[in-house]
Amino acid sequence: xxxxxxxxxxxxxxxxxxxxxxxxxxxxxxxxxxxxxxxxxxxxxxxxxxxxxxxxxxxxxxxxxxxxxxxxxxxxxxxxxxxxxxxxxxxxxxxxxxxxxxxxxxxxxxxxxxxxxxxxxxxxxxxxxxxxxxxxxxxxxxxxxxxxxxxxxxxxxxxxxxxxxxxxxxxxxxxxxxxxxxxxxxxxxxxxxxxxxxxxxxxxxxxxxxxxxxxxxxxxxxxxxxxxxxxxxxxxxxxxxxxxxxxxxxxxxxxxxxxxxxxxxxxxxxxxxxxxxxxxxxxxxxxxxxxxxxxxxxxxxxxxxxxxxxxxxxxxxxxxxxxxxxxxxxxxxxxxxxxxxxxxxxxxxxxxxxxxxxxxxxxxxxxxxxxxxxxxxxxxxxxxxxxxx
Length: 389
Ligand code: SF4
Ligand code: F3S
Prior knowledge:
- There is one protein chain.
- Helix content is 37%, strand content 9%.
- The termini are far apart.
- The chain contains 17 helices and nine strands.
- It folds into three domains: 12-225, 3-Layer(aba) Sandwich (Rossmann fold); 228-318, Irregular (Cytochrome-c3 Hydrogenase, Chain A, domain 2), CATH 4.10.480.10; 324-385.
- With 389 residues, it is an alpha/beta fold.
């Protein structure tokens, strides 16, 4: 394993191009592309351990479809993917030695990526790797990881393996962290069955460059990809708004491209970037191809699937309560982070004075108009960091 800087192998021009594309995928201003490239050139290639538990290899398959960066750039120039069951050349004892080496030599530096849910039943006996249960392996590798990326709906929310009656006691990474069964580390969920390839790689690149994840929502999803429902950005939305619904897959409405709500579309309850980023290098996505969204990126996927049955009511949508500090943290990650990379601890202004400072508009580079409630959320977050009530 080597720890060369990102700029060593990847030519400056290629790095700049990659960062401009990534900035666009992350909905950042185009001017941040060169800033990202400059920062990236100073970063070292991060060692990455990728653990696959109860999964179908769809997430890895999706990763190989990324175009910005493509898999080759990602593996050979941006990260050092030193342990991945499907992609690594080593096997058996050699593979396990490589994992041990990363744990001891790069403690606190390596990134841990996980796909698949973790079986907790039968004392972990449902799935073992090198004689170690999935839960124990996650615990060991999570202990000194810089951060964890849960790739796919299974790792993010349990997914298909956790569907009733959940015979293996399948769990998601976040729940195990919250319960104290595995070490608490910075965590991002990138759900989807599988996730959009560019969502995986853009989140990874954001971490490599800014050493933190992009702003997350209350379910630890990057808001840039999961901030809106599929429905809100659907190209059939005007048919929905005007009450035109296909009633069967072969009726006139279906042929005319009407809304698929009556055929079980879960777009109104599903947060994902399919309508904007699309699949297969921006070619298409399920609804454009004539199939309803089946909510593959949401918690409860399968048990709450309602395949081909129309949604009953909006009450199916369960949104967790979000505190002011959590909203403030998301706002900070969405806006402030791009100038204040080290984080809010580097501020010289007391938390309580930040809203007034921003309201006065004395920060020349500031390009956002915050509402009063946003400023209050920001102050709540900064106070929380300061240990204030
Ligand atoms: Fe919404 Fe689905 Fe209809 Fe698109 S097809 S407008 S996502 S309900
Ligand atoms: Fe999944 Fe719905 Fe997109 S089923 S792939 S989130 S359109």
